[in-house]
Amino acid sequence: MRYFLIGLLALLSLEASSTNSVNPAHIRGVVKDFKGGDVIMMINRKKEVVQVDDNGVFDYTTTLKEPGKAILFFEKYEYILPLYIENGMEASLTFSFVEKKDKSSLLPYDLELEYSGDNGDCTEFMQKYEALSLYNVWPFSRIDTMSFAQYREKFLEDMDRVKSELKEVKSLAFRRMMMAEIDRSIPESLFRFAWSKLKNDADFEQFAESFDRNDPDNLGIAAKYLRHYLRHHPAPEREKDIHYLNSLKQVFSDQEVINAFADEYIQSYLKQAPDNMEEVYKLYSNISTNPEARALADDMYAHYVKLRKGAPAIDFEMTDAKGKKFRLSDFHGKAVYIDVWATWCGPCCAEIPHMEKLAAHYAKNKKIVLLSISLDKNKAKWEKKLAEDKPQWRQFICLDAFDSEVCKNYGINAIPRFLFFDKDGKVISLDAPRPSSAKITEYIDRHIR
């Protein structure tokens, strides 16, 4: 026993020594003409602010449990760079951001990157792979010209070329990681054939049925299959929520899979406070068997059932560009259409030109006021955007962002989001049509007569 304990202690000591001797990943960086703002490193969903000096120089080290992807985000430049990091690597990066001449671009800067040291070929491969957008190389207009057999053949040829390039990368750990990621992505990419057009193709149907959609570890494919099924088994618009929930038991037999889709759906659905909440929620209660999700949904139902159309709005505070505080209730007497957005949100910014047209259309209408509420935490960034765009409708900010009253009261956890209240401060919609909707003015006019 004595020798066993001595041996065990020696082994533990060796393991501890081995762990302590791991060399961390080390990245030195320089941002030329640095304009400030946070630089954030995200690894395995953990976010860390990188300390950058006034000259744009930083020195970052981290010890990883396993090699993996990282995201380097430059707040001031609204730029995201994918990186590959593993213990022991030494790399030096020089970043030169070039402002785009096209001011309408969602990404205001291009990046010129100089990379020296370990894993440069990994990062280069990741950049090319992410730039290989399916929607650019394989748009639906191209898929529409092919049978599924042709699409699969050509698409797999493209993936084989990508894999061939991957074999040239030096890091074995990176090659293994990316090969697994590429192989995982292929089936879901091929499933895009399902909604290029509503067409029957025996090869595709055989492909779709070849997956175990009742495997809880296969929810990505299961979601694609469900969407395929619903497109071929559509429901009238007013029955789509009932139809969705009923379809879960038609498509799946595994209760864990059914719960996953039902629970996610009801949480999104309830935040809209629709008219038929009782009927849909009762059906959900008979479908999901997940007690934790049911308890959360019960609380959500109790909150949002009080915010259906015609219910009194819950008041909240917002601040204008001059620092003056306002509340929703300050606008009683007029209908209020609200755009909840942020400068960092691409789809939000894409709605701005449509919001401008909407504001111009109702500029002389005394029955309605249009507001935009930013969820930016950086007030200076918001002010700069206002100075550039010069919007002609009321602008506000909630610096608490998703922790603000408006977000908590109305369940806003994704943007853009559009709220609509009548002149008496009662709810018209918690999920109103976007300004870009073809029938937006018709929708608004119908509610402000």
Automatic annotation (TrEMBL):
<keyword id="KW-1015">Disulfide bond</keyword>
<dbReference type="GO" id="GO:0017004">
    <property type="term" value="P:cytochrome complex assembly"/>
</dbReference>
<dbReference type="Pfam" id="PF00578">
    <property type="entry name" value="AhpC-TSA"/>
</dbReference>
<keyword id="KW-0676">Redox-active center</keyword>
<keyword id="KW-0201">Cytochrome c-type biogenesis</keyword>
<protein>
    <submittedName>
        <fullName>AhpC/TSA family protein</fullName>
    </submittedName>
</protein>
<dbReference type="GO" id="GO:0030313">
    <property type="term" value="C:cell envelope"/>
</dbReference>
<dbReference type="InterPro" id="IPR050553">
    <property type="entry name" value="Thioredoxin_ResA/DsbE_sf"/>
</dbReference>
<dbReference type="GO" id="GO:0016491">
    <property type="term" value="F:oxidoreductase activity"/>
</dbReference>
<feature type="signal peptide">
    <location>
        <begin position="1"/>
        <end position="18"/>
    </location>
</feature>
<keyword id="KW-0732">Signal</keyword>
<feature type="domain" description="Thioredoxin">
    <location>
        <begin position="307"/>
        <end position="449"/>
    </location>
</feature>
<dbReference type="GO" id="GO:0016209">
    <property type="term" value="F:antioxidant activity"/>
</dbReference>
<dbReference type="InterPro" id="IPR036249">
    <property type="entry name" value="Thioredoxin-like_sf"/>
</dbReference>
<dbReference type="InterPro" id="IPR000866">
    <property type="entry name" value="AhpC/TSA"/>
</dbReference>
<dbReference type="InterPro" id="IPR013766">
    <property type="entry name" value="Thioredoxin_domain"/>
</dbReference>
